[in-house]
């Protein structure tokens, strides 16, 4: 019996490799207009998935959709704020109307709104918890009928929630973000236990330093609008990957690999967890940190 199961799995992987790791599957990826989300959308499309991309910036989605088309992939764009009350129904309905199913949800959308604990007002706390915990929960709940399926309807299905080393270890100036990213881990483990009997896998990725606008130098002046306010993004004094200190590794003595990750590397970790290569991985938090924090 064990040999038969091994043969079935090996055959499935062989067939999948030939057509792409996610061939014919449908993946919703939030925050796909740039950064890690964009890289994940392109990679999933290359691996044969129908990709439903979402971002608050509709113009950026148009660019990503065109990039997917140019590599021979297929996508559906659903612009919107993941924190909006009507967003989960909007994206789930659009996905099912076009593709008839959902295989994967990658809750990637998010941002930082850093302040020291004693100066953090309620609205700064609330918006981060809303986007990083409430929004993923509501999207997953909305999609429940397409995950809690009868045995004969089941395919490869997974939930991937994005956490951070801040959620694992805390971080100065990020009480709100650290609390939200810790909560996501508990949410994911609960999904694993509740939906595992339906064949659904649920995992978290805790990213360390990945070079995006959120980890770039704050001095660059990049901002985003949150509830009508311009919020500065980035980390004070952060070194870009092109900086000589970063290239030599001197900028990252706390990271054993002595560098930050790029967004394609971050997307590859997402692909692994969504793919049949992780068919028996569930309830896990994958630390993609270059060895930091061990």
TrEMBL record:
SUPFAM superfamilies to which the protein is assigned, alphabetical: NAD(P)-binding Rossmann-fold domains
Homology family: Belongs to the short-chain dehydrogenases/reductases (SDR) family.
GO MF: oxidoreductase activity, acting on the CH-OH group of donors, NAD or NADP as acceptor; quinone binding
Gene3D superfamilies registered for this protein in UniProt: NAD(P)-binding Rossmann-like Domain (3.40.50.720)
InterPro entries, per database record: NAD(P)-bd_dom_sf, Sc_DH/Rdtase_CS, SDR_fam
Residue ranges that the Swiss-Prot or TrEMBL entry lists as coiled coil: none
PANTHER family xrefs: 3-OXOACYL-[ACYL-CARRIER-PROTEIN] REDUCTASE (PTHR42760:SF133), SHORT-CHAIN DEHYDROGENASES/REDUCTASES FAMILY MEMBER (PTHR42760)
Organism: Dendrothele bispora (strain CBS 962.96)
Pfam families with a match to the protein in the record: adh_short (PF00106), adh_short_C2 (PF13561)
GO BP annotations, alphabetical order: fatty acid biosynthetic process
Name assigned to this protein: NAD(P)-binding protein
Signal peptide as annotated in the record: none
Annotated keywords: NADP, Oxidoreductase
PROSITE patterns named in the record: ADH_SHORT
């Amino acid at each position: 019996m064990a040999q038969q199961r091994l043969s079935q799995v090996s055959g499935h992987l062989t067939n999948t490799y030939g057509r792409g790791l996610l061939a014919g599957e449908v993946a919703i990826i939030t925050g796909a207009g740039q950064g890690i989300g964009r890289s994940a959308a392109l990679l999933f499309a290359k691996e044969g998935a129908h990709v439903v991309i979402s971002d608050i910036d509709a113009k950026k989605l148009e660019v990503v959709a065109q990039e997917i088309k140019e590599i021979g992939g297929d996508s559906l764009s659903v612009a919107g704020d993941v924190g909006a009350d009507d967003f989960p129904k909007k994206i789930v309905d659009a996905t099912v109307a076009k593709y008839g199913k959902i295989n994967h949800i990658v809750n990637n959308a998010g941002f930082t709104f850093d302040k020291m604990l004693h100066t953090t007002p309620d609205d700064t706390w609330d918006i981060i918890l809303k986007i990083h915990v409430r929004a993923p929960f509501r999207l997953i709940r909305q999609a429940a009928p397409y995950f809690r399926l009868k045995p004969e309807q089941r395919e490869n299905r997974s939930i991937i929630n994005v956490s951070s080393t801040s959620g694992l270890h805390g971080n100065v100036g990020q009480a709100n973000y650290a609390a939200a990213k810790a909560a996501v881990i508990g949410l994911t483990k609960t999904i694993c236990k509740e939906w595992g009997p339906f064949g659904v896998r649920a995992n978290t990725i805790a990213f360390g330093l990945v070079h995006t606008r959120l980890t770039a130098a704050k001095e660059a002046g990049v901002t985003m609008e949150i509830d009508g306010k311009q919020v500065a993004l980035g980390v004070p004094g952060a070194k870009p990957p092109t900086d000589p200190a970063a290239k030599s590794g001197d900028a990252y003595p706390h990271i054993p690999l002595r560098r930050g990750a790029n967004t394609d590397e971050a997307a590859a970790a997402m692909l692994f967890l969504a793919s049949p290569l992780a068919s028996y991985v569930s309830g896990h938090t994958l630390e993609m940190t270059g060895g930091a924090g061990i």
